[in-house]
Design goal:
The chain has about 180 residues and is an alpha+beta fold. The protein has helices at about 1-20, 25-30, 110-115, 140-145, 155-165; strands at about 40-45, 50-55, 55-60, 85-90, 100-105, 125-130, 150, 170-175.
């Protein structure tokens, strides 16, 4: 009984955090004592995501990338994670993965390049946590690049990134 009560309380706190944080403007976060990131940098070759404030990293996380991680995403279905400058343009607390931040890929240059080759540029590039329904053992997600082109973190890391960013945060994805 005590275990069920603790689990229910933890779930309620988590839901409350999600409701309060989804799209909440910066002043509310700041008044809660959270210093927000003003930029996200992903270095694909390091498999790292950095939260920056004033140009300096203050948090770092291990990430998984697309199944074909080398090179810039050029088209739908290439399983690559894009490279370039984008923005976090949408926050989704109810995605198929534990939270998600939508990356503004494709930009105009990405669209022009894809159309020049008669390809579809693809889209739905996210920063997200683990799948809500696991198809593999947990260790698989920790040691492999497994996304279709997204940037994936552990769920605790994703919650922290969610809480420390705001809509319209710039993101730079480097090779």
């Amino acid at each position: 009984m005590r275990f069920m009560h603790a689990r229910r309380s933890f779930a309620l706190v988590g839901i409350l955090l999600l409701v309060l944080c989804a799209g909440v403007p910066r002043p509310v976060f700041a008044s809660a004592g959270l210093d927000l990131a003003d930029q996200i940098v992903v270095v694909k070759s390091e498999r790292r995501l950095y939260l920056l404030r004033g140009g300096e990293p203050f948090r770092t996380y291990r990430v998984a990338l697309g199944l074909n991680p080398l090179g810039h995403k050029e088209r739908e279905g290439d399983f690559r994670t894009p490279e370039g400058r984008y923005r976090v343009d949408t926050r989704n607390p109810a995605s198929d993965y534990y939270l998600s931040l939508h990356v503004s890929y494709p930009n105009n240059q990405d669209v022009d390049n894809a159309h020049r080759h008669h390809w579809q540029p693809g889209g739905s590039i996210m920063i997200h946590g683990m799948p809500n329904v696991l198809k593999h053992p947990v260790d698989f997600y920790r040691r492999a690049d497994w996304t279709n082109g997204c940037i994936a973190l552990s769920n605790p890391d994703m919650l922290e990134v969610w809480l420390l960013t705001r809509p319209d945060t710039p993101i730079e994805i480097r090779p």
